[in-house]
Design brief:
CATH architecture of the largest domain: 3-Layer(aba) Sandwich
Order of helices and strands: HHHEEEHEHEEHEHEEE
Helix content: 25-40%
Distance between the termini: 42 Å
CATH class of the largest domain: Alpha Beta
Radius of gyration: 23 Å
Strand order of the largest sheet: 4-5-6-9-8-7
Strand content: 25-35%
Number of strands: 10
Largest sheet: 6 strands, antiparallel
Length: 243
């Protein structure tokens, strides 16, 4: 344990935060393990309980720690960092990081789109879509639920394709010539509904990351609307912008 430098220009609370982060990175406390209490940190570092509490609260707000009332403060599970699946498939990213992946096909069917889906795909009321719902697992644990909608007229026979072992984007481009050129994305936090909670193995109301993609081809045709919900405790989405 590194001692705090009381004659340093760096405030003691910042030194304590840095020290705790380093101890977590070094593996002294593993994900899911309870860390030292405010009183224990007070004794170890010679700081006030209020200072220790403020630092722990900062780390909780940053997602490094989480609190369980009556039990203490614990190290948060390590999240998987991914980029938007519009640019690289989730399965491809996970496998590149060494995770064993599995896809479960929940359903694939041709149906009348809801108003929201119809608006996103610029369809008429009489048009049909293919609904493709899949569950993605990493190392045997569910992490994301994918609901994709494709105009049936653009992908005839889609239900006969291998939607378990092949990525949907690969099928759409290779079999139907639908190559992504433009993507409109929106990201927000959502509470897990009953079916989502059951599929993802989380409590109802748990925080999820909801990503919606509207994908168009070179000629401007919108050919896919996808809504993905990720487990907020397992996945982090990273974005990079080059200006």
């Amino acid at each position: 344990m590194a001692e705090l430098q009381r004659d340093s220009s760096v405030p003691l609370y910042q030194q304590l935060e840095d020290a705790l982060r380093q101890r977590i990175r070094a593996g002294e406390w593993q994900p899911g393990e309870r860390i030292a209490s405010e009183n224990e940190l007070n004794r170890e570092y010679g700081l006030s309980r209020m200072t220790a509490r403020g630092v722990l609260t900062k780390l909780v707000n940053d997602g490094v720690l989480f609190r369980v009332p009556g039990k203490g403060t614990f190290v948060s599970p390590t999240k998987i960092s991914t980029i938007s699946p519009a640019y690289r498939g989730v399965r491809e990213q996970l496998e590149a990081m060494g995770y064993e992946t599995r896809t479960e096909l929940i359903r694939v069917a041709q149906e009348a789109p809801t108003r929201r889906v119809r608006e996103r795909l610029n369809l008429a009321e009489s048009d049909a879509v293919y609904a493709v719902h899949r569950l993605r697992l990493a190392s045997g644990e569910p992490i994301s639920l994918h609901r994709s909608y494709i105009p049936a007229a653009l992908a005839p026979g889609l239900e006969e394709q291998d939607l378990v072992n092949e990525q949907l984007c690969v099928i759409l481009e290779g079999q139907y010539g639908l190559r992504m050129k433009r993507v409109i994305e929106s990201l927000e936090v959502a509470a897990a509904q009953a079916e989502e909670a059951k599929r993802l193995g989380v409590p109802r109301g748990a925080a999820l990351l909801q990503l919606e993609d509207v994908i168009s081809a070179q000629n401007g045709t919108t050919f896919e609307f996808t809504r993905i919900v990720f487990r907020g405790d397992k996945i982090r989405l990273d974005f990079e912008y080059k200006l």
